[in-house]
């Protein structure tokens, strides 16, 4: 992917955004075949980079996917990460909080699932649910039993400002301690979402993917777009910017995500650890010992 295409997908920090600023059908004049070829190369490269990430044991990678229903989160994870060693990768999908989770702050369950050094962590939905679905349905906040929040009327604009600040502080803390945070908003159009819902209804092999709750949430499309716009505006930072990935064409979406992950990991100067002189000497001794063994 060319850098001029990449800048069209980046939500630059410090700007006021609307989701309509980004075209969900954008392909940057990249052909479908070129995108598939590049993705294949990136999948292979990711395998190599992951191996060095694990061996170096200095950084961890946190990849966050947020999107409306049917945008393609699962498929993107499946295709882009297909070459990754499962031992070095963890995938978590955050659903409705449990009773135990609600008895802690909203970042508690996120902290528990963060990747260790040397590993790649993938969040299918994340702490951003607490400023997306919770903003569209603020009654969800009440279940958190927060001090001073007794009714929905208590959830004012300052509440959301504080929450955005908390998330930015959290991601800064992670970044400064060796976790690279990559955030992807898979931007699907309302028309394309309807098409994919119909495919799920018409294809028996895809019926299991459909939920009546998806249709209910679709009724709040405009509210969700406003919530996503606020997230892009308030939480795209220099350390952890948002990438708005066009999701109407799955082949381009997967290509873009794969390229961005590869490019960011290349910037880390990952390499296999080098042995000290003492380590090399012991290695030679081991080689000699093994060569002297009669099998």
Q: Topology, please?
A:
Elements lengths: L2 H7 E2 L20 H25 L3 E8 L5 H8 L8 E5 L5 H4 L5 H4 L8 E5 L8 H4 L2 H4 L14 H20 L2 E9 L2 H13 L9 H7 L2 H15 L6 E5 L3 H17 L10 H15 L4
Parallel strand pairs: 2-4, 2-5, 3-4, 5-6
Antiparallel strand pairs: 1-6
Helix pairs in contact: 2-12, 3-12
Properties at a glance:
295 residues, alpha/beta, Rossmann fold, 6-stranded mixed β-sheet, 6 strands, 12% strand
Known CATH architecture: 3-Layer(aba) Sandwich
Whole-number average pLDDT?
A: 93
Number of strands: 6
From the spread of the alpha carbons, the general shape counts as globular
Oligomerization category of the chains in this entry: single chain
Radius of gyration, CA atoms, in whole angstroms: 22 Å
The proportion of residues forming helix, as a percent range, comes to 40-55%
Question: How many domains make up the coordinates?
Answer: 1
Named CATH topology: Rossmann fold
Element-level helix/strand string:
HEHEHEHHEHHHEHHHEHH
Backbone structural class = alpha/beta
Largest sheet: 6 strands, mixed
Domain Polyphosphate kinase-2-related: 30-267
Family: Belongs to the polyphosphate kinase 2 (PPK2) family. Class I subfamily.
Keywords: Kinase, Transferase
Organism: Bacteroides faecium
Structural notes for this entry:
The protein is an alpha/beta fold and 295 residues long. It has a single domain (3-291), classed as P-loop containing nucleotide triphosphate hydrolases (Rossmann fold, 3-Layer(aba) Sandwich). Helix content is 48%, strand content 12%. It is built from 13 helices and six strands. It has helices at 3-9, 32-56, 73-80, 99-102, 108-111, 133-136, 139-142, 157-176, 190-202, 212-218, 221-235, 250-266, 277-291, and strands at residues 10-11, 60-67, 89-93, 120-124, 179-187, 242-246. Helix 2 (32-56) packs parallel to helix 12 (250-266) and helix 3 packs across helix 12 (250-266). The longest helix has 25 residues, at 32-56. The radius of gyration is 22 Å and the shape is globular. It starts with a helix and ends with a helix. One of its GO terms (biological process) is polyphosphate metabolic process.
């Amino acid at each position: 992917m060319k850098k001029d295409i990449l800048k069209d997908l980046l939500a630059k920090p410090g700007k006021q955004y609307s989701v309509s600023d980004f075209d969900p059908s954008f392909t940057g004049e990249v052909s479908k075949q070129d995108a598939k070829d590049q993705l294949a190369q990136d999948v292979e490269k990711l395998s190599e980079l992951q191996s060095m990430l694990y061996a170096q044991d200095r950084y961890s990678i946190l990849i966050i996917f947020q999107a409306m229903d049917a945008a393609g989160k699962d498929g993107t994870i499946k295709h882009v990460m297909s070459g990754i060693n499962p031992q070095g990768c963890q995938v978590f999908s955050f659903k409705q909080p449990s009773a135990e989770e609600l008895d802690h702050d909203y970042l508690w369950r996120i902290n528990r699932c963060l990747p260790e050094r040397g590993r790649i962590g993938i969040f299918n939905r994340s702490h951003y649910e607490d400023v997306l679905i919770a903003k569209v349905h603020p009654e969800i906040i009440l279940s958190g039993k927060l001090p001073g929040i007794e009714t929905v009327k208590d959830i004012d604009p300052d509440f959301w400002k504080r929450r955005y600040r908390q998330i930015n502080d959290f991601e800064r803390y992670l970044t400064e301690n060796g976790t690279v945070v990559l955030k992807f908003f898979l931007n699907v159009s309302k028309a394309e979402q309807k098409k994919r819902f119909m495919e799920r209804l018409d294809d028996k092999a895809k019926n299991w993917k459909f939920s009546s709750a998806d249709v209910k949430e679709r009724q709040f499309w405009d509210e969700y777009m406003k919530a996503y716009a606020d997230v892009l505006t308030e939480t795209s930072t220099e350390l952890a910017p948002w990438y708005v990935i066009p999701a109407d064409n799955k082949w381009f979406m997967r290509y873009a995500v794969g390229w961005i992950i590869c490019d960011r990991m290349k910037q880390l100067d990952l390499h296999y650890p080098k042995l000290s002189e003492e380590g090399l000497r012991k290695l030679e001794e081991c080689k000699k010992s093994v060569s002297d063994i009669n099998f």
